[in-house]
Amino acid sequence: MKPVKVGICGLGTVGGGTFNVLKRNAEEIARRAGRGIEVAQIAARRPNPKCETGATPITADIFDVANNPEIDVVIELIGGYTLAHELVLKAIENGKHVVTANKALIAVHGNEIFAKAREKGVIVAFEAAVAGGIPVIKAIREGLAGNRINWLAGIINGTGNFILTEMREKGRAFEDVLKEAQALGYAEADPTFDVEGIDAAHKLTILASIAFGIPLQFDKAYTEGISKLTSADVNYAEALGYRIKHLGVARRTEAGIELRVHPTLIPADRLIANVNGVMNAVMVNGDASGSTLYYGAGAGMDATASAVVADLVDVVRALTSDPTNRVPHLAFQPDALSDHPILPIAESESAYYLRIHAKDHPGVLAQVASILSERGINIESIMQKEAEEQDGLVPMILVTHRVIESRIDNAIAALEGLADVVGKVVRIRVEQLV
Ligand code: HSE
After folding, report:
1. How far is CA 242 from CA 144, 185, 238, 377, 381, in A?
2. Does the Cβ of 194 fall within 6 Å of ligand 1?
3. Domain chopping of the chain, boundaries
4. What is the mean pLDDT of the chain?
5. DSSP structural state of residue 63
6. Closest ligand 1 atom, CA of 159?
7. Which CATH class is domain 4-133+301-336?
């Protein structure tokens, strides 16, 4: 059988890796796919020194690939929302299947892209968009298809995890570690996407849709970054038996779906609490499977290429199948998506770590405790440290039981209003992940 012809748009880290893996593993890949896969064209503005493209035709214009009648599958690896959006729509219009690693594109424009793809009977595959080399989309969409998924929680930004790991293990400052992550090539072009949780929110939006069968709703995800975390909180969390991780959490409740990215205390003995450096991990809890954990490299040349090529193999295998019998883009049949709402953060439920700085007077702890108890907030543990030398203030660290966020908001406002409490109360959410 003739090989399937693909065009790679973008020859950066992931594009170069994809070309290399397709070349290096060509024979094994063909044995799996049932046909050879030939890179018939590449669109790139400059060569990639890590990628020997030989005689493969190269163009500077990505639309040459989308309009090339020889090409069956367009691989979009240019990133960003604008040009990538146009490219993918053009490829679909021309009846080509698409493989993309672009989480921002899928999270923001996925509903439109999938609708267009259905009209044309083509596949848009996006395993590489979430957690690089970990096949977590396939695991949720297919491997867990028998489950009602209750929640998922993931470390889905390698840069953020690297920063938190270095802060905890080596006591390094945030800025210093960020520079190193950029030099290692993991960070997004705009590093605020990593540290403010936007990249993780893109990925979480995608995971939540395929877990719960809801349309993509990136605009409703709550996002809080790690740039304000201090080593004091990292150390206090440690003393209480927790680690701070930048988690994406999606949880199904009666009232709606929680969709939130924020720093989170998790018990230090959970496997996911020990995922360090640039590694990613996603926990998924299904009613039948219980909790499952997927771990691996969340970024990088070969790891992300592994996911792109796996999608390509899926596309090649499905080329002759009836489009209505393919795995749906968002795991659930498009006419069976649910309108269960995404909850605003004030209506989500969590336990909380609170750090309060108080003057060292008798009765302060009693006032703090009564503010919490009046609002039905149960204290799980409390730790008070000796007064700090510079300001004579006493750091008071509390962990609460689970409660609706609006109650904690209200308690924090009351705590900050106390004459003996100085400055802002630090609040970090806590998840047990069982
Ligand atoms: N900037 C991302 C990360 C790259 O650090 O995980 C992979 O999506």
Report:
1. 29, 29, 5, 20, 12
2. yes
3. 4-133+301-336, 136-297, 349-428
4. 95
5. H
6. 5
7. alpha beta
